[in-house]
Design goal:
The termini are close together. The relative contact order is 0.16. With about 350 residues, the protein is an alpha+beta fold. It has three domains: about 1-60 and about 325-350, Malate/L-lactate/L-sulpholactate dehydrogenase, four-helix barrel (Hypothetical Oxidoreductase Yiak, Chain: A, domain 1, Orthogonal Bundle), CATH 1.10.1530.10; about 60-175 and about 225-295, Ribosomal Protein S8, Chain: A, domain 1, CATH 3.30.1370.60; about 180-220, Wheat Germ Agglutinin (Isolectin 2), domain 1 (2-Layer Sandwich), CATH 3.30.60.50. The chain has helices spanning about 5-20, 25-40, 50-60, 85-105, 120-130, 180-190, 225-240, 280-295, 310-325, 330-340; strands at about 1-5, 70-75, 75-80, 105-115, 130-140, 140-145, 155, 160-165, 170-175, 200, 205-210, 220, 265-275, 325. A seven-stranded mixed beta sheet has the order 2-3-4-13-5-8-9, sandwiched between helices.
């Protein structure tokens, strides 16, 4: 199904308003979800709206939450998100990191008492739009093993960075730290497919090709083995250990755990003010020089070009703006179900 982004945004706001989320918070959450869909990252976009609303209505996400700073210094702050919907506490924190970076040169803002925050890249890009380098990350309930372990040990902790280029869109990388996204494992199980033996380990910590084991008795493998493990531990340190958030197994699953309970997620946001270190014009010239060198590299056989991190996503974003957004069937089905549940008068509420 194809529609314009403003239609999808309006639907999200309407649905969140039905759950009594304040207008400003509904708009913030809708923008995160719709932007993510426009990038083509459908696992983290509006497909999650129904789950968010279920948790709001059950009390695990507080509709009246007000994130607040509970500790601070010139170049850092700790935010208690008050069990707000993830995008609200996260946008609050990244805006605070940007504000402090303007005076301190760079700033770290950690968040505790949060929830699933969607695509980390959205928040990194917030800093890039202000001419800064941005980093965003969060911890999650354990679904990923580590070398030598049996079962899940750490969350598939996402991390993103954005670098302004002087062009319309920044360089943008947004990744989780497993070998493959959990959504691909679920999809393979639905189709009845076997999977490569480096995606999952079974309950004994041994490689398996059976996707049906995930997540109850199987665990995702970290990307590049010990390297993905190490990065996941870094994210855990900055977003949970340092912030006072729930750590590893203490974090509840936002989609599977009792929806009346706060999940305890942590997050971290870093902004680097380029102008504090070198003139922005000089930085952008050096970024363009680097981009030109990357693009000038010989193409591999069968490849027609080299893409920068995030370039494919920004191309999809621009196409969605110009031509409308094409949503996958599973996302449409989830939103149609939500429309029916909320008695919303909208075109997805009835099958075509």
């Amino acid at each position: 199904m194809k529609l314009h982004s403003h239609e999808l945004n309006a639907f999200c706001i309407n649905a969140l308003s039905q759950a009594e989320l304040p207008a400003e918070d509904a708009q913030a959450a809708a923008d995160v979800l719709v932007t993510t869909d426009m990038w083509g990252i459908f696992t983290h976009g509006t497909k999650n709206l129904r789950g968010y609303i279920r948790r709001i209505r059950s009390g695990g996400i507080r509709k009246d939450a007000r994130p607040k700073i509970v500790g601070e210094g010139p170049a850092w702050a700790i935010v208690d998100a008050d069990s707000a919907i993830g995008p609200v506490g996260s946008c609050f924190a990244m805006r605070e990191a940007i504000r402090r970076a303007r005076s301190a040169g760079l700033a770290y803002v950690g968040v505790r008492n949060s929830c699933h925050f969607g695509a980390a890249g959205y928040y990194a890009a917030m800093a890039a739009r202000e001419g800064m380098i941005g980093l965003a990350m969060a911890n999650d309930t354990p679904t990923m093993t580590v070398p030598g372990a049996r079962g899940a040990v750490l969350g598939n902790n996402p991390i993103a960075f954005a670098v302004p280029t002087g062009e319309a869109h920044p360089i943008l990388l947004d990744i989780a730290l497993s070998s493959v996204a959990g959504g691909k494992v679920f999809a393979a199980a639905t189709r009845g497919d076997v999977i490569p033996n480096n995606w999952l380990v079974d309950s004994e910590g041994l490689p398996t090709t059976d996707p049906r084991l995930f997540p109850h008795s199987g665990a995702l493998t970290p990307m590049a083995g010990h390297k993905g493990y190490g990065l996941a531990l870094l994210v855990e340190t900055l977003s949970a250990i340092l912030t006072g958030a729930s750590i590893a197994s203490q974090v509840l699953s936002w989609s599977f755990a009792d929806a009346s309970l706060p999940t305890g997620h942590g997050a971290a946001f870093i902004a680097v003010d380029i102008n504090a270190i070198m003139p922005a014009v000089t930085f952008k010239q050096r970024v363009r020089q680097t981009i030109q060198e990357i693009r000038a590299a010989p193409n591999a056989k069968g490849a027609d070009r080299i893409y920068l991190p995030g370039e494919m996503e920004w191309n999809r974003y621009e196409r969605a703006l110009a031509e409308g957004l094409e949503l996958p069937d599973d996302v449409v089905a989830e939103l149609r179900t939500l429309a029916n549940e909320l008695s919303l008068d909208w075109k997805w509420s009835k099958p075509h």
